[in-house]
Predict the structure.
Amino acid sequence: MAKQCYSSCKHGLIFFLVLFMQDLHTNTASTARWQPMQCVAVSSSPSCSSFLYAISEGRNLSEIAAVFNGSASLLHPIKRASGVVDVLAGVPCTCEVINSTMSALFHDTLCLVRPGDTPENVKSKIFSELAMNIGDGKVLISGDTITVHLPCGCSSGAAKGVLSYAVQEEDTLPKIASLFRTSSQDILNLNPSLVNPDFVQPGWILFVPMGVDGSSKERRICTCCQYQTSDGGSPLTMRDGADTVMLGDSGRAKGAQDHHHDKRGETLICCCV
């Protein structure tokens, strides 16, 4: 599959973004003016490590890593209740200048415009609804390379980092909180524009603090990277994204290996976070 977008490390970029209102169709009083997470220490060095929620869209892990300007080793597949497997992409989050009065946290990448691309389909189909102000309001020209700004977040209160997440159909705040092992109140605390906890609109970007509920019975995210045969033979390396498994609580530390026997009598060697 031809790579549609490629990444580039850009530091010290000063750009102007038009802050936008979240699009409300049913309840205009449900949110205030949305803004990226503000910061004060503008720097070309990352302020923290964060996560972006990437909808798989049929892409493998290497393709997602390239599109989101991240490392394949920092991608963690996550299985939703519907059975769909998406990806949490670990990325550096940097404090950048927006305008003369505001700085905010972003992760930047580059995208090669394809024939027929529009700001809307680049945002939704390539960047999982996370990209801000694609093309800065200009018409996209095939063959051009554009900088894409992806809002990210940092919080000392998020044990496993802050996730940038675009609300999907059928989502509610409690469902989102449960998926990422946090609480509705913790999400509200990190999103001052979200004023009605009973109303979230598909497409809204939320900052989700992960791993803050303190539960000892957490649902861990595990990537199965190898098969080991039942007779103890050499492991077989799996294709990127070929398999994932959600394991129950076992008390292992982050990054520990776990083993899950599949129905073929082989062992999946999984790295869990």
